[in-house]
Amino acid sequence: MLKTDTDRRAWLIELISYWEGGINATGLAALCGIGRQQATKDLSAYRERFSTNLNYSSSLKTFQPTDYFVCGLISGDVAEYLDWVSGQRAPTTAGSVLPYQCLRHPPRKVAAPLMRKLIQAIREQRRIEVDYVSLSNPDHEGRVIVPHTFVNTGLRWHLRAWCEKSQGYRDFVLSRFRAEAELLDLSPQGAGQDLAWQTEIELILAPDPRLSPAKRNVIEQDYGMQNEQLQLSTRAALANYLLQEMQVNYKMLDGTPEAQQLILVNLDEVRQWLF
């Protein structure tokens, strides 16, 4: 638990320097809404506490992680960094709250040096050469991709990127990247050229019609449906993941309507975006 603003800033120093490869007083001040003098004090205090974690690069004017970096305030799980970036579970200094519990999926390991290069490739819209494995191709395979967005599907994180081998935009599971990555030159293939990413579609869900009227009403109340339907807007590239998260099987009905619960009403309209 981060009890004070100072604790949170120390956590941020470690989080950003570890996953992004560096932090300086100007960046910390901008992130935390504090003066540069206070940010400098925070960095000094962190270095006193964790003396072997950061070295100052005078040429880059940035504190960078050393080869002896040890996580003292962060978990080392990439989801912690990505959750902070997305704002989903960023630690706060708020007062006491009602007790709650969140399910945590098993951590998926991603090497920090690799993440740093992926982050840089996204920010600078650069090509990057990576090793990637998949169930269809479990051997290490060199790929050149141009990543543009990290995506949380609820169960795991993946990377949306242009793939030169496939000549199309694909989703790459973060934990399936291997070894080192090499940053290459700039590329015109950014998020703006990703048609499925730029296309907004609407998914229309409804209770399984095999359910009794009373049971359908329960589901309608669960989701606050209007006219017995739930309308969800999403990027076309994320439609499949949203349906999976909602446990909607559009390929075949479950034999038990109580298990199926929801159906996709406008399947024909959105089928081209599903896989």
Your description of this structure?
A hairpin with an 8-residue loop joins β3 and β4. Residues 89-97 have low confidence and may be disordered. It is built from ten helices and ten strands. The chain has helices at residues 5-20, 25-32, 36-49, 78-86, 112-124, 195-198, 213-223, 239-245, 257-260, 267-270; strands at 54-57, 62-65, 126-132, 141-152, 157-163, 168-173, 177-186, 200-207, 230-235, 262-264. The strands form three sheets. Strands 6-5-4-3-7 form a five-stranded antiparallel sheet, with helices on one face. The chain is α+β, with helices and mostly antiparallel strands.
Content-based structural category: alpha+beta
Number of helices: 10
- Amino-to-carboxy terminus distance: 41 Å
Rg calc: 22 Å
Spatial order of the strands in the main sheet?
6-5-4-3-7
Mean pLDDT: 91
Percentage of residues assigned to helices: 25-40%
The SSE string, one letter per element, is HHHEEHHEEEEEHEHEHHEH
Model regions low in confidence, pLDDT < 50 over at least 5 residues = 89-97
Compute the number of strand runs: 10
**Cα shape:** globular
In percent, how much strand structure appears in the residues?
15-25%
Q: Sheet with the most strands?
A: 5 strands, antiparallel
